[in-house]
């Protein structure tokens, strides 16, 4: 499970969709997604978790992307 967490998460569905597309475009299947007010969880196979974590970290942290803008 990969999770995005943030108190400024204003559009969890948009952010979840963007995160899922990012993972799927990079060969990581995302069979399940759950979201709440401040958290999105993307369920991926354990073997894909490290790559998925790097991709999400790069997109939201290193590139300074705010989840509320997704």
User: What is the percent of helical residues?
Assistant: 40-55%
Neighbour order of strands in the largest sheet:
1-3-2
Helix and strand string, N-terminal first? EHEEH
What would you call the shape?
Answer: globular
Tell me about the biggest sheet?
Answer: 3 strands, antiparallel
Query: Which structural class should the secondary elements be placed in?
Result: alpha+beta
Q: How widely separated are the two ends?
A: 20 Å
Key phrases:
3 strands, 70 residues, 2 helices, 19% strand, alpha+beta, three-stranded antiparallel sheet
Commentary on this structure:
The chain has helices at 12-25, 49-62; strands at residues 2-5, 32-35, 39-43. It starts with a strand and ends in an 8-residue tail after the last helix. A hairpin with a 3-residue loop joins strand 2 and strand 3. A three-stranded antiparallel sheet has the order 1-3-2. Helix content is 40%, strand content 19%. It is of the alpha+beta class and 70 residues long. It is built from two helices and three strands; from the N terminus they run βαββα. It is globular.
Quick summary of this structure?
The protein has 70 residues and is α+β, with helices and mostly antiparallel strands. It has helices spanning 12-25, 49-62; strands at residues 2-5, 32-35, 39-43.
Helix and strand arrangement:
Blueprint: E1 2-5, H1 12-25, E2 32-35, E3 39-43, H2 49-62
Antiparallel strand pairs: 1-3, 2-3
């Amino acid at each position: 499970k990969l999770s995005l967490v943030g108190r400024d998460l204003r559009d969890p569905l948009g952010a979840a969709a963007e995160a899922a597309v990012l993972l799927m475009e990079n060969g990581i299947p995302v069979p399940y997604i759950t979201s709440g007010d401040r958290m999105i969880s993307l369920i991926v196979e354990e073997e894909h978790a490290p790559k998925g974590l790097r991709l999400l970290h790069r997109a939201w942290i290193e590139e300074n992307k705010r989840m509320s803008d997704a």
